[in-house]
């Protein structure tokens, strides 16, 4: 069934502005001229209300609007949202006391402060325990590996047992356990390890990539004159540590 406007003559009203006359099903009555207008022309400035005079209260030229009291906020509301603390009107965004720095606002106290403090301590301790103990962990893993490679390591037979320092060397030939003398320089140890691992070594030549030992990403090229025992005593390396033998292009 179709309902036409002729059948509902009292439904809605035409906008009182002569240039509009649009029918509005929810017309709004102007408080000054007592004329109905559509939502687009309800404000006094929009329909050039002649009933407004200098003695009538004005709210920024808008009927029934309330400007938000928050600095630099231009939002206006038809209904007044008054803050119970400072009795000022604020828009929906700034209506809460903590959002407009209300003079009566008191920050809530921390619930169960002692419990919160205890929880923070437990969390901090858990974070500390989760951090890797790099120095101790490296030394311990070297000791464990030393026990595994000691019996299989290869090296020069004339090195006394008390002078031996063991390494697991990763090279192009695979993982090979070796031992060197703690009194050797890093350069001499590299030459011996290269020979033991059957890796080509051109360190005696100029302007060619140098064969070097690496501990993780640290290159020992600049320590070729240092003694193996100095690296062990400074805990830069340990007997049983893993080193990589690979080429390094020096500048």
From TrEMBL:
UniProt domain AN1-type: residue ranges: 9-57, 62-110
InterPro entries linked to this entry: AN1-like_Znf, UBL_ZFAND1-like, Znf_AN1
SMART domains named among the record's database cross-references: ZnF_AN1
Molecular function GO labels: zinc ion binding
UniProt record, GO biological process: proteasome-mediated ubiquitin-dependent protein catabolic process; protein targeting to ER
GO cellular component terms, semicolon-separated: endoplasmic reticulum
Superkingdom field: Eukaryota
UniProt keyword terms in alphabetical order: Metal-binding, Zinc, Zinc-finger
Protein name: AN1-type domain-containing protein
